[in-house]
Design brief:
With about 160 residues, the chain is an all-beta fold. The chain has one domain. Helix content is about 5%, strand content about 40%. The chain contains 1 helix and 10 strands. The longest helix has 4 residues.
Amino acid sequence: MCGSSVPNPVISTGSRMMLKFESDGSVSDLGFKANYEFRTSATPIEPSGECLHLSVYVLFVSRLVSLNTHCHTIPQLLSTPPGCGGILTNASGTILSPGHPNFYPHGVTCLWEIRVAPGQRIRLSFNFFSLEETETCDYDYVQVYTNATSNSTVR
């Protein structure tokens, strides 16, 4: 996802959801603000270093463009600006791009993983969204991973 249209809410297909933000080395913007909540109350889940098989959906203003399957652990994907990524297990919370409400920095990759108990779902809603806009969203973008399995779908 890129540009300035606020994306539609996304509901996970399983008990994990991941959000990846990446910016290139030139243009920056005000970034994004998203809220997440569990569909039912959950017991916090401790982080583990297991391999996550992710279905990666690259979304451009709410339309599915490509699908790739990857295997990553959280430390492989995180960079370290303050507030850039992490494992979230609270019942609800807010995810902000680094620097929001000011301009986000150049050249960052942030990954947030939201975990709930098995059988529960996560709802992610964007309240603000303003990233560098290009036709293919190759430079600054957000990707939403709706589950940790290869058969997950964007809803």
